[in-house]
Amino acid sequence: MMRMTLQFPTGFVWGAATAALQIEGAADEHGRGPSIWDVFCREHPERIFEQATPQVACDHYHRWPEDVAWMKRLGHTGYRLSISWPRLFPRGDAVANPRGFEFYDRLFDALLAAGVEPSVTLYHWDLPQSLGERGGWENVETVERFADYSAACFARFGDRVKLWATLNEPSWSTLNGYLTGIHPPGRQEPRAAIAVSWNLLRAHARVVRAGHEAGKGSRIGIALNLSPIRPATPSAEDRAAATLADGFLNRWFLEPAVVGRLPEDVLAFYDRAGLLPRISTADLQLMAGQSVDFLGVNYYFPNYASAGARESAFALNNTGRPEEDCVFAIGGLFRFVRNPRGRYTDWGWEIDASGLEELLVRVHILRPGLPVYVTENGIGLPDALVDGHVEDDARIAFLREHLAATHRAITAGANVRGYYMWSLLDNFSWVNGYKKRYGFLHVDRTTLARTPKKSAGWFRDVAVANALPD
Ligand code: BG6
Description:
alpha/beta; five-stranded mixed sheet; 15 helices; 17 strands; 40% helix; globular; binds 6-O-phosphono-beta-D-glucopyranose
C-alpha cells in the first residue's frame, strides 16, 4: 500500500513553547524582583508537589545559548516564550532593570541568528509581587502598569519580535487564582474572579491597541486555553450545563478577543447573580475596536459537563498518581465528570485529539480566515532517562494524533499557521513541581543537563519535511 504524507502549508511554523517562570531560574539574579509565584511557593510549600520551587527551574537564564542551539538542531523554525515582567520591572512600577532588557536582547538576537522566529507572550502568570500585594489584577492599577510594561517591550524589542501575545490563558489563571484557589493568590471568591477576568480583558484590549500604535509591523494576539465542553449525557440539563460552562470558560474570553464583544448570555447570567463589575461604555468601545491579528490556541483536553453539583469542590491531581481525581464542581450549576471511554494520563488529563480539531474549526467559523497558532499542546509524562535515552513513545503517539487533527482542521479551512509543542524543556510545572515532564529535552534535576528525547528527533523529521507521515 502506498504511504501518504500529510503536507502542511508553506511557511508553517514548527517549534516549542515555554514560559519565563517555568524555565529561567536565576530568580534573584541581576536585579530581578519576586513574582507572586516565587512568594506563593515559598509561603505555601505544602501546595506544590514535593515542595518544588522555580528558583532554579531549568537555569535557562544561564544556559540559553545551549537551548537556542538545540532548537536549531531540532529543526524548529519558531519558539514561543514569555518575558518575565519582574525581570524587566522588579517592583512592577516604572523603574526598569537594564540587565533584564539586555538578557532578552541577547536571546532574541540569538534566536533570529539561528533562524528561529520568536513569538512572545507578555504575561504568563508571573505578576510582580509588589503589584500582587496591592490587589493584583483586582486593582485597576495593574492594568495601567501592564500597559506601560508592554509598551516598553514593544519599544525595545519590536524591531525583532513580530508576534506578540498579550496574555497566556486568562481563563485558567483567573479560575485557579480566584475560584479553585489552587494558584496564587489562592482565593475562592466568584465575585473577585469575574472582576479579575474583566480587568484582564481590559488589559488585553489596551495592549492590543498599544501594539498596533507602536507600529513596527507587529501582530498582536492572545493565547487562550480552550476546551470543548461536551454534555456528559444527551439530557437537556447536561446540555444546558455544557453551554453554561462553555460560556464561563471559553466564550467569556474568546468572543471579546476575536469578535470584540462579550457573550450576552454570560453577561446576563453574571448580572442576575449580582456578580458583574462596573463595565463602562468606553471599555466596551475599546474592546470592540481592538480585535486580535491572530489567536493562540492552547489545547490539552476536553471536558464533560454534568448538571447540578450539590456544592463547589475543586482538586487537581498534582502527584501523577492515576487513582487521584481531578475535581471541578460549581455548586448548584455544574461539575465536570470523567469520560468513561476516555484515555487519561497519570495526572488525569484526557487524551483526545478530536478536541483540537473541533476548536480550530470553531475559531474558523467564528472568524473565518483569522490566523491561528497552536500555541501549546503536549503531554505530561513521568519520563525517565535510561542509559542516556528517553523512549517517550507515548509523546510521539500524542503528537502524531494532534498534528493529524491540526491537519484535518486546515483541510476544513482553518488558517492554522504553526504548532508549538508544550514544551521545549522539562520544566517547573506549577503546582505539579518537576515530576510531570513535558519537554522535547529531558532536564536532569541534579545536573540540569539536557538530553533530547526520542520525540525530539521524530518532531525534527516532521518539521524538516513540513509533513506528517501518515
Ligand atoms: C498551560 C500553561 O495551562 O498548561 C503552561 O500555559 C502549563 O504554563 C501547561 O505548564 C501544562 O500545565 P501543567 O499544570 O501540567 O504544567
